[in-house]
Design brief:
The protein is mostly helical. The protein has 17 helices and no strands. It has helices at 3-17, 22-31, 38-53, 57-89, 93-102, 109-122, 128-147, 153-167, 177-192, 199-216, 223-239, 245-259, 269-285, 291-305, 315-331, 337-352, 361-379. The chain has a domain at 1-170. The mean pLDDT is 93. The protein is elongated.
């Protein structure tokens, strides 16, 4: 912000503080439309904070009232622009993401509050078909903001959750069961990835949402969606903090196996491989049953995943599964110890072909550390 505009902001703020009442303040703002933008109300918040510190509470409250009004108008205009872009582009990230990038300063908790308040007030005012159209736009935007790579990830997730929650009042289980189930599934994903709040509670909320979705998404009526939600539920149980750890892993394994009834290698190879990889990790972490057999099951699942996850077609997934396979061989109980270590080393080396220090430093360091430990074990 240039000094000249900042000086203009401060002069306008000083004029507002010296005016007689709210009506006069409105006229002053109307005469200075060219200065009304996010920079103005942000400066107002800063000045109000200084006024509070110096003991001028009346001035601070007066300025905050104006700033909050201007901010809400600014955010509301942005919300309308976002929903229009989302609707007209049918949720095209190539259209919506540049708009979000230009307004990163507005992607915050206040925006989520504006979204909730506006939608909650708007839905009862309009006809049902209009409310549904608006809800579709909000739902598509919630999907987009959840995956938006810029800004504050935690805040983006909160905006996404807010969107899903408000549209669930339009697409209810009774009126739109299929759409409601989709919202519940998406809400489960958002809660599982949520950063703010208590991690354990977030995962519980995710599990509850997935279970809600599965009341509608049955294997008979919606097999693909049912399998997707079963897979997601398996992930949530794998991450679960509360409850019995052993039982959580059993629930995860059961959910993954359910998903694989539909996610076959022939019909849905990518989804099948993803679930096989996650099933392998669940078996490797399994507490109940025979430890040696669990690791054998993990190795088998990882090898299944690698039938689809090839280095050429899916290098990142291939490297991830190679790393997992290496860990399983390292932990293997059956077979020749030396050969298992050699197999683990080979798998880790495969992973490092993709997980280079430049491309993926965290995975690279983790894998090289495991390799170092393996070499040490092999020499002792």
């Amino acid at each position: 912000m240039d000094e000249q505009r900042m000086e203009a902001y401060l002069n306008l703020i000083n004029t507002l503080l010296n005016c007689g009442n709210g009506e006069e303040a409105g006229k002053i703002l109307n005469d200075n439309q060219e200065l009304i933008d996010s920079g103005l109300w942000q400066t107002m918040f800063q000045v109000a904070e200084r006024l509070t510190e110096t003991g001028d509470r009346d001035g601070a409250e007066f300025l905050l009232k104006i700033a909050n009004y201007l901010a809400s108008e600014d955010y509301l205009d942005f919300l309308m622009e976002v929903l229009q872009a989302t609707g007209e582009s049918k949720g095209d990230s190539k259209v919506v993401y540049p708009l979000l990038q230009q307004n990163l300063d507005k992607l915050d908790g206040y925006f989520a509050e504006i979204l909730r308040n506006w939608a909650t007030a708007k839905f009862p005012e309009v006809e049902a078909d209009v409310a549904e159209s608006i809800a579709i736009y909000i739902g598509n935007f919630s999907n987009l903001i959840q995956d938006f790579p810029l800004g504050n990830k935690a805040t983006n997730m909160e905006i996404s959750i807010t969107g899903y929650e408000v549209i669930s009042t339009v697409f209810t289980r009774n009126s739109h069961p299929e759409s409601w189930a989709t919202i519940q599934n998406n809400l489960g994903n958002a809660y599982r990835d949520r950063i703010t709040g208590d991690k354990a509670e977030n995962i519980e909320s995710a599990i509850a949402a997935y279970k809600q979705a599965l009341q509608v998404r049955t294997q008979k009526d919606f097999p693909m969606d049912w399998a997707m939600t079963q897979h997601n539920l398996g992930n949530a149980y794998s991450d679960r903090i509360t409850g019995d750890k052993a039982q959580n892993i059993e629930s995860a394994i059961a959910a993954y196996k359910q998903a694989l009834q539909v996610r076959t290698q022939k019909d849905f190879p990518m989804d099948w491989a993803m679930t096989q990889n996650n099933l392998g990790t669940a078996y490797r972490n399994r507490i109940t049953g025979d430890k040696a057999q669990n690791i054998e099951s993990a190795i088998a699942a990882y090898k299944q995943a690698l039938l689809v996850y090839t280095q050429t077609d899916f290098p990142i997934n291939w490297a991830m599964t190679q790393h997992n396979l290496g860990t399983a061989y390292w932990e293997r109980i059956t077979g020749d110890k030396a050969q298992n270590i050699e197999s683990a080393i080979a798998a880790y080396k495969q992973a490092l072909q993709v997980d280079t220090l430049e491309a993926n430093p965290l995975h690279h360091l983790q894998t090289t550390r495991n390799l170092g430990n393996l070499y040490f074990d092999n020499q002792n």
